[in-house]
Design brief:
The chain has 170 residues and is α/β, with parallel strands linked by helices. The protein has one domain: Glutaredoxin, CATH 3.40.30. Helix content is 46%, strand content 18%. The strands form 2 sheets. Strands 2-1-4-5-6 form a 5-stranded mixed β-sheet, sandwiched between helices. The protein is globular, with a radius of gyration of 20 Å. It starts with a helix and ends with a strand.
């Protein structure tokens, strides 16, 4: 009888571990965006291929679950209809979780979150900015950068307000 209970317990534990593994494998690496309506992509060759195919720059959002400014920027700016529309229509939106992908953020030289980069499909930097930016200002920045890029102008501009950021320690 004890042997049967031990076998059943072992089977239950095995099934639970298997289900936990499946959930972890299937979980998106950018799970922070639990309330977002933006179709975020991963930073990988597929995102760049899509950008090249559709002739769109990439909008890269580097965030941390631990950053209150990231959540504020997401809910008060990124999730506004005007921003969602321009991101989905004119850019390839990519999200990078700083906690899960610190080396990637470091390689992109992101030192504060929220960090944002606009890259061409060929990986040239158009713009880097950080911190909380209101919806209207963000819309204007995205529009101006997009217009210049379409005119063939690429520039390496950077701006932000460190008071509305969380520092990163690598």
């Amino acid at each position: 009888m004890t042997k049967n209970i031990t076998i059943i317990n072992y089977q239950v534990i095995t099934i639970m571990l298997f289900l936990l593994a499946v959930v972890n494998v299937c979980a998106e690496p950018w799970a922070y965006h639990r309330e977002t309506k933006i179709n975020w992509r991963q930073y990988d060759k597929y995102a760049f291929a899509e950008a090249k195919d559709k002739n769109k720059p990439l909008y890269i959002f580097v965030y941390s679950d631990e950053c209150s400014w990231c959540r504020k920027f997401e809910t008060e700016s990124l999730e506004k209809q005007s921003i969602r529309t321009i991101l989905e229509k004119e850019f390839i939106p990519v999200a990078i979780d700083l906690i899960k992908q610190p080396e990637l953020a470091k390689n992109l030289k992101v030192k504060l979150v929220p960090g944002n980069l606009l890259l061409t499909p060929g990986r040239e930097k158009l713009l880097k900015f950080y911190g909380f930016i209101k919806e209207q200002a963000l819309y204007e920045v995205l529009g101006k950068t997009l217009k210049k890029w379409r005119q063939g102008v690429t520039y390496d501009n950077e701006f932000g307000d460190e008071k509305t950021c969380c520092p990163i320690s690598y």
